[in-house]
């Protein structure tokens, strides 16, 4: 078990202020819950005008545009875009491997989790946080309200990196929560003993829209060591003696590229949002690039 990341280091005032300009716009989230600041793809009696359409039997008379009727003698309805809250479910990976690099990856994961939660809570969305390793750890059920921001920050700062990685078991446990459809954000390096194929199959079974955030470092693909080493798995403790030369590194990069290609291919075909977030850089600018247009990118 690794000590938790210091609260002041994770969530300093400058960081919390920086996330305020981020905005998540939900797409194709089923209508449910309170009205808030998320755009629905459905048209109804909301507050923003969207379009006209001809009147049909059974339509609400209150939506008729009488000015058009007086000018053209035809009956049209004014259509509005409804605003609704987004259920946001955040699953940060807090397994032992996320802290094996001196908490760099763990720190980026928790700061990203907090940034997304802060934006959504500020927009009156319901936010739930479900940290995981080989199972869900200290889950926080979805709730709304800006007053939850600081309490959530304190909760994330208490999380300790521990446990083996089992994304499949964690995703299965999350699915059993039977939460209403929303946006599920999985934050992880996606290194799982079962292989990326098993993780993808578990993701396919989720009933939510997906955003995959891969917490990565440049050295994941390009290790900086050469020579003879004994490599020890930080979670299982298993050791393997290896001789690292350019040929070995070449095969490793090919394997890593296949791993990466499978994640991206799944995101494009599902479709799901995808962001490879560099843990060695500030997270807010990277999230801004993803969300500034109000849409997901792959």
Provide tags for this entry.
elongated; alpha/beta; Rossmann fold; 23% strand; three-stranded antiparallel beta sheet; six-stranded mixed beta sheet; 298 residues; 11 strands; 33% helix; 9 helices; single chain
List the helices and strands and how they pair.
Elements: H1 7-10, H2 13-18, E1 38-44, E2 48-54, H3 66-72, E3 76-84, E4 87-92, H4 104-122, E5 126-129, E6 140-143, H5 148-158, H6 167-175, E7 183-188, H7 196-204, E8 209-216, E9 227-232, E10 239-244, H8 246-269, E11 273-278, H9 283-291
Parallel strand pairs: 4-5, 4-7, 7-8, 8-11
Antiparallel strand pairs: 1-3, 2-3, 5-6, 9-10
Helix pairs in contact: 4-5, 6-7
CATH fold assignment of the largest domain:
Rossmann fold
Helix content: 25-40%
The secondary-structure class comes to alpha/beta
Low-pLDDT parts are 25-46, 293-298
- How many individual domains? 2
Specify the CATH architecture of the largest domain: 3-Layer(aba) Sandwich
CATH superfamily of the largest domain: von Willebrand factor, type A domain
Beta content comes to: 15-25%
The shape is elongated
Topology pattern, helix = H, strand = E: HHEEHEEHEEHHEHEEEHEH
Helix count from the secondary structure assignment: 9
* CATH class placement of the largest domain: Alpha Beta
Average the pLDDT over all residues and give the rounded result: 81
Q: How many strands?
A: 11
Could you give the order of strands across the largest sheet?
A: 6-5-4-7-8-11
| Main β sheet profile | 6 strands, mixed
